[in-house]
Amino acid sequence: MSVEMEDRGRALENEYFRRKEQELIEKMKAKLEAEDSQETGMQCPRCEGKLVETDYEHIKIDVCDKCSGAWLDPGELAQIVDKEEKSGGWFGRILG
């Protein structure tokens, strides 16, 4: 009976630490996502969503969290076109 109690105790302990590790992983993921995309505090011009700053090809653009519309600041479209022209992408060929 004592062996069964020890096994049960180890199982409960393992489950406890597994849950704690999972909580830490979720917190770390949330922190990384928050660092990668920061809310700009601006409202989407198309809908009532909030614009979130995200990285596209190392260029910071604003994306709506509701309609997924992408909004560019002055000069960002030129940066995207320039990168696309250099890489031979279809977007650069159309606008270049």
Write the layout of secondary structure elements.
Elements: H1 2-36, E1 38-43, E2 50-56, E3 59-64, E4 70-71, H2 76-87, H3 90-95
Antiparallel strand pairs: 1-2, 2-3, 3-4
Give a written overview of the molecule.
The protein is an alpha+beta fold. It is built from three helices and four strands. The chain has a four-stranded antiparallel beta sheet. Strand 2 (50-56) and strand 3 form a beta hairpin. It is elongated, with a radius of gyration of 24 Å. The model has no long low-confidence stretch (mean pLDDT 82).
Strand pairing plus helix content: what structural class? alpha+beta
- Inertia-based shape: elongated
- Please give the share of residues in helix: 55-70%
Percentage of β-strand residues: 15-25%
Q: How are helices and strands ordered from N to C?
A: HEEEEHH
Distance between the termini: 78 Å
Report the C-alpha radius of gyration, rounded: 24 Å
Index terms:
alpha+beta, 3 helices, four-stranded antiparallel β-sheet, 96 residues
Write a compact overview of the structure shown:
This protein is α+β, with helices and mostly antiparallel strands and 96 residues long. The protein is 55% helix and 22% strand. The mean pLDDT is 82.
